[in-house]
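Summary for the funding panel

The consortium committed to producing paired sequence-structure records for every protein in the target list. Below we show the first two records in order, beginning with the earlier of the two.
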Amino acid sequence: MSEVKADDQGFTLLEILLVLILLAGSGFYLLIKLPVNVEKQHLAFESTKLLEDIRDTRQAALAENISYVVKFYYMGDPHYQIFRQGKLINNTYLQDGIEFLGTPQDLTFNALGRSAGTTITLKNSLGEQKSVIIAPVGMRIREK
């Protein structure tokens, strides 16, 4: 077993500098990458929430045998509203930086769960896009 000398304490200056350089480098990398990932996560969250709301609305129209309407508002604060036989039941605003691309067509689900097919595209402030596609034939609702 080796003995510890009285003057053999602590770290060398080179070891401390090396650790500080590694920490600074990893911190700089996170500082650059973090905002990009946050924007992607906001877009993915809003797209998934829109997809689920449209699927739930379609299922409610089928189950209750009545009509539902989803209206999209792209001017000002982008948001969408869900109406059950003309009565507002849900009002959802998109997060900051997320907006509709173009002018989405309003959806009307009848008692058979049918609506016109359309594509609703969301865009974040970086220009990335995600779409919710409502197929006109089989009424399959999916995310792209």
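The next record, for a separate protein in the list, is shown here:
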Amino acid sequence: MNRSLMSLGLAAVLLALQPGMALAYIGPGVGAGAIGAVIGVIGAIFLAIFAVLWYPIKRMLKGKKKPGATNGAAKASDSSAAK
């Protein structure tokens, strides 16, 4: 009995793994919509990664300004306040 149950289970698994015809049709509108949705999700992921990485890079680049530019602006405001 155990052997026949095992062979029956094996046959059921093999039949379940056999490919069958789906007889389904995906029209051009559904296909284009699916492609657009996939591209949108991938684009959103890349934009999210870019947004997370851009702020620290922007701050790092902003901190590397010429030191004379900030001192000149401070001197100009001091001289106008002294008058």
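Regarding this second record: Residues 49-83 form one domain. Helices lie at 2-17, 28-62, 67-82.
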